[in-house]
Amino acid sequence: MTHSHLTPPATGVHSFDDFTRLREVVVGRADHYTAHDADSSWRLFYFENVAPHLADGQRQLPIPQQIVDELNEDVAAFADALAGCGVRVLRPSVPGKDIQVSSPWWTSGATPPLNVRDNAIILGETIVETAPHIRGRIFENDHLKPHFNRYFEQGANWLSMPRPALAAGSLDTGYFDQQGIDVTAATAGEDALPIDGLGLEMVFDGAQCIRLGRDVLVNVANHNHQLAYRWLARNFPGLRLHRLPGIADNHIDSIVSVLRPGLMLLRSPHYLQFLPEAMRGWEAIYPPPSTVPEPDYDEFGFVIPTASRYIDINVLSIDENTVVVNSLYPELIEVLEQRNFNVVRVRHRHRRLAGGGHHCFTLDTVRDGGLEDYLSA
Predict the structure, then answer these.
(1) pLDDT tens for residues 195-218?
(2) Does 343 fall in a domain?
(3) Are 70 and 48 in contact (CB under 8 A)?
(4) Burial class (CB in 10 A: 0-12, 13-18, 19+), 301
(5) CATH number of the domain encompassing residue 154
(6) How many domains does the chain have?
(7) Closest by CA position to 120, among listed 99, 144, 98, 104
(8) In 3D, which of 365, 376, 375, 332 has the Cα closest to residue 9?
(9) Who is most buried in 27, 56, 82, 302, counting CB within 10 A?
(10) Can you tell me the distance from the alpha carbon of 90 to that of 27, in angstroms, rounded to the nearest whole number?
(11) In terms of DSSP bridges, do strands 107-109 and 100-102 run parallel, antiparallel, or are they unpaired?
């Protein structure tokens, strides 16, 4: 294993991993996140978590204003905590209210730029805009483009995967089909139009990757993702890509998080088999059960948990010894502190309703690490 930590250039993006010293980061916004537009693309993406709640076919799923206010409060405190650790914090532009987005094939409600990890990834000194799974997120990166433009002016490269049409029939259900999971609750009532001859197209999120210097782990759970994997391989020949065979249906940052080379936070030993052989010998911290109950949403009526019940392992590292953890997960905090980590406690009350945790809410644009080789003996 060879690696060294050099201070990155002062201009442009420079981010090769998720654990060396964080210098600049984009933290998302939840302003006006008052509803989910549960079209078929949304239902299919979140299927494993929302399936029990889809029987009535309701399209607009409201989020009570109290929850939105508390979510915004927690995200603002998160941004302040990062700034307090010496990180330069950037924010997306404030989204408009009740924005509808349309293509010739569909109409959907826009999602605010909260989980900014999804629609972009920084690969070294290149900004990559990815190809969204969810129709309502197709223009979400526009809120980040003032920052992307500045980074480009400072010398960053900037690429975009082909924008998916997300017409009817564009999304592959193969991950679920192979497991005998019936997803008709997601695909029934499709109101988008098809494009003759299109078939399955490139669809992919940045949170399907784990960056390790020269190496990038890429979760490929269906043909949509396989097309994106090929695109990444053709556009980044200098990186060593590792194709993970469907470790999850899409995102993997609530399954595995690299805390530093040789040490990872891993949901359970079951997932070792999906990782590159060099990582199977790493030390793993398995998160303890949480005893803190989730908020009681009965007073609000119909509220759907979109995120995994393991979302609290979606931590953000500030450096190899400092990690941001939900303050409502004291069991994990204790385990990390016993390992001599400095834990920055930040409250995230509605973690299962927001579709993501602290790692999801961020796009780390500048870190100290470079093109190190962490997977060689």
Answers:
(1) 999 999 999 999 999 999 999 999
(2) yes
(3) no
(4) exposed
(5) 3.75.10.10
(6) 1
(7) 144
(8) 365
(9) 27
(10) 6
(11) antiparallel
User: Does residue 6 form part of some domain?
Assistant: no
Q: What is the rounded distance in angstroms from the CA atom of residue 64 to the CA atom of residue 102?
A: 25
Regions of the chain short of the pLDDT cut 50: 1-9
> Residue 166 in contact with residue 138, Cβ under 8 Å?
yes
Name beta bridge partners: 126: 123, 157
Backbone angles phi, psi at 211, to 5 degrees: -100, 130
- What was the pLDDT predicted at 288? 95
**Which residue in the block uniquely carries the two structure tokens 């094939």?**
105
The residue range of the domain holding 332 is 22-367
pTM above 0.90, yes or no: yes
Q: CA torsion 207→212→213→218, rounded to 10°?
A: -50
Distance, in Å, from the CA atom of 223 to the CA atom of 202, rounded to the nearest integer, reads 8
Residue 132: inside a domain: yes
Nearest to 349 by CA among 331, 330, 328: 328
Q: What is the tens place of the pLDDT at every residue in 23-37?
A: 999 999 999 898 899
φ/ψ of residue 128, rounded to 5: -120, 115
Q: How many C-beta atoms surround the C-beta of residue 161 within 10 A?
A: 20
Q: How are beta strands 342-346 and 157-160 bridged, if at all? A: unpaired
Cβ neighbour number for residue 238 with a 10 Å cutoff = 8
Q: Which residues on neighbouring strands pair with residue 70, listed in sequence order?
A: none
In a domain, 101, yes or no: yes
Q: Interior CA angle at 117 toward 324 and 7, to 5°? A: 65
